[in-house]
Amino acid sequence: MQTLPTSQLTDLVSGVRTAVNAHADWSETTELVAEQLRRHLPTPDVLTAEQRSGAPEHATSHTLHVEPDGTFSIIAVVWRPGQLTRIHDHTTWCVFGVIQGVEHEELYDADLNLLGRSDNQTGEVSGFAPPGDIHRVHNTSDTTAISIHIYGTDVTRIGSSVRRYYD
C-alpha cells in the first residue's frame, strides 16, 4: 500500500529514497535519513484537523507513505497529553522529527537501567539503529504532540516497528 504524498512530502520521500538507496549500514542510513528529515520536515497540516486531534485512549498513527519496494515507511504519530508507549525496541532503524509539541524520551540499556532522558522539541530530529534502541516515549506536556517517524521497513506489512516490549 502506498499513499500519495502531499506536496509537503514529495521532497521528503525523494530524499529518503536517495538516502536508503545508498545501501549503507543501518547507523549510516539513520544519519542520511535524519539529514533528509531535517531538510524536509513537514508542518502539522500534513495531517487533517481530525487526524491532528488524536484519540483519547492511546497515541494514533497515520501512514503518510510506504515505499513500493518496502524499504521504508513514513508515519505520523499524534500524542495527546499524558500518552506514552511501553518500553520497547525496534525491528529496524528509525528516524523521527517533532512537528508539534514536545516528546519526552527515556533511553534504557539491555538490563532496563535508565541511561538518559531527553525532551525532543518541535523541529528536532533524532534517530537510532538497533541494537541500543530500547526506549519509551511520553507526551509530558499539556498540549498535543505530533511527530514524523521514518522506519526502514514497510510497517503496514509487518504491523508494527516494535520488536519487543519490556516490563
Short overview:
With 167 residues, the chain is α+β, with helices and mostly antiparallel strands. It has helices spanning 7-20, 26-39, 49-52, 155-158; strands spanning 60-66, 73-79, 87-90, 94-100, 102-108, 114-121, 125-128, 135-138, 145-151, 162-166.
What does the secondary structure layout of this molecule look like, with pairings?
Elements: H1 7-20, H2 26-39, H3 49-52, E1 60-66, E2 73-79, E3 87-90, E4 94-100, E5 102-108, E6 114-121, E7 125-128, E8 135-138, E9 145-151, H4 155-158, E10 162-166
Antiparallel strand pairs: 1-2, 2-9, 3-10, 4-7, 4-9, 5-6, 5-8
Helix pairs in contact: 1-2
Oligomeric state: single chain
The geometry reads as globular
What profile does the largest beta sheet have? 5 strands, antiparallel
Classify the beta-strand content into a percent band: 35-45%
Explain what the structure shows.
This protein is α+β, with helices and mostly antiparallel strands and 167 residues long. The protein has a single domain, classed as Jelly Rolls (Sandwich). The chain is 22% helix and 36% strand. It has helices spanning 7-20, 26-39, 49-52, 155-158, and strands spanning 60-66, 73-79, 87-90, 94-100, 102-108, 114-121, 125-128, 135-138, 145-151, 162-166. The protein has a 5-stranded antiparallel beta sheet, covered by helices on one side. A hairpin with a 5-residue loop joins strand 5 (102-108) and strand 6 (114-121). Helix 1 (7-20) runs antiparallel to helix 2 (26-39). It is globular, with a radius of gyration of 15 Å. It starts with 6 loop residues before the first helix and ends with a strand. This is Cysteine dioxygenase family protein.
